[in-house]
Design brief:
The chain is an alpha/beta fold. The chain has two domains: about 100 residues, Oxidized Rhodanese, domain 1 (3-Layer(aba) Sandwich); about 160 residues, Ferritin (Up-down Bundle), CATH 1.20.1260.10. The chain contains ten helices and five strands. A five-stranded parallel sheet has the order 1-5-4-2-3. It starts with a helix and ends with a helix.
Length: about 280
Amino acid sequence: MNWRQFLTPVKSVDADAAKAYLADKKVEDVTILDVRQPKEYESGHIPGAVLAPLPGLTDHLDKIDKNKPVMVYCAVGGRSRVAAQLLSGQGFKNILNLSGGFKAWTSDTAFLGEEKGLALFDGVTSVEQALTVAYSLEAGLKDFYETMAGKVDNDPAKQLFQKLSQIEIKHQERILKQYAETTGKAVSHETFESQALPGVLEGGLTTEEYANLLMPSYDTVSEIIELAMSIEAQALDLYLRASEKAVNDAGRKALVQIANEEKTHLRLLGELMEETLEGK
């Protein structure tokens, strides 16, 4: 038995410090490790977190990069402290324990099980296919925002839905550019849209599924922003989970790049929320 794992001090950070630490990092720079049970993970988790329940943590060690920082969390901080000490005893050098655990995390969250949405990427064996699926997800959300803009009577809400739709159009253009840069082949919006997945938004859920899970209200700008943040957090989570399942490095890198863009979208939405709340 390696007694060092029970004696090594572990650095702990609170939720605010953890959020600040992650803010300027790319998604691939840090491993976020969730050591709770699958049902806990399913009910809510930090976007992009890798599920490795504490009882079977040693079975996941070969999947965790020792050269990257690891931020580990559980429900309130007890299990994660044990997990952090175990990782330290296994040669991990840069480990942070989230004190207060997920219950203290007040930032963006994802939900559902670790396999949810991954079926969309089944059979994806090339970067071209990965980007085609991603484009389709962006198109679904763009159409959703456009539909909502036509339904609401509140002018600020209508304008916000239109603005969110324009953001998704820009992201689609970015994916087309990434496709061209990666493959050396130009492709049109029409070609990608002909392969669209009907009714599926970013994050891998349908409009109806999001409505049933989030029970969104569209009466105020802040509620619309909250809905958008929930969808973007789920999208970030899905792209990162899909990148772990990618069958080649090119596909993985393409999905990680899109995940980083989703993280930027989340940051911008957070800033918009702050401006909205300050203006009340």
